[in-house]
Amino acid sequence: RDVSKIYRSEPNMLRVEEPVIIIGDIHGQFFDMIHMFEKVVDTKGIPQTNLLFLGDYVDRGIFSLEVCVFLFCLKINFPRNVTMLRGNHESRAMTEHFTFRSEILQKFQDEEIYNLFIECFESMPIAADVHGDYLCMHGGISPELHRTSDIDNVDRFKEPPL
């Protein structure tokens, strides 16, 4: 719940300063993520640059839970250096259709734990502006949005339309 509070305090579009490493879909590939992470931390495990994750942390791989827990811990410990955006797989519909829900129920046998993850996912920011030069998000820009300032008016705290 701590990470959900952090996400809820953040705007829809975050400002991220350089230097930054932008990381795309992880899809439950925990060991690949750790291999990447080892390249950007010091000997104490502290990130030496800003990290911007573009979403799709879960599904497909078999370690989605571990990916989320690791990234949530990073976010809690380094909230200004770690930015996590919501991808299309961070939704109830996608996690039920693919593997995340079943992974959580297999590992915990507790629907409430799954619901807590969904609560976190539904509170994640949806876009990032890197130093005023790059607009980053998981997917494309909705045709309903005409200016980047329109992103701040999106109600992100709900299940996205399919």
TrEMBL record:
Domain Serine/threonine specific protein phosphatases as annotated: residue spans: 85-90
SMART domains: PP2Ac
Reactions mediated catalytically: O-phospho-L-threonyl-[protein] + H2O = L-threonyl-[protein] + phosphate
PROSITE patterns attached to this UniProt entry: SER_THR_PHOSPHATASE (PS00125)
Biological-process GO terms, alphabetical: calcineurin-mediated signaling
Alphabetical keyword list: Hydrolase
Statement: the UniProt record of this protein carries the keyword Hydrolase: yes
Classification via InterPro entries: Calcineurin-like_PHP, Metallo-depent_PP-like, PP2B, Ser/Thr-sp_prot-phosphatase
EC number: 3.1.3.16
A single MF term (Gene Ontology): calmodulin-dependent protein phosphatase activity
Pfam families: Metallophos
Family classification: Belongs to the PPP phosphatase family.
Protein name: Serine/threonine-protein phosphatase
Species of the source: Strombidinopsis acuminata
Taxonomic classification: Eukaryota, Sar, Alveolata, Ciliophora, Intramacronucleata
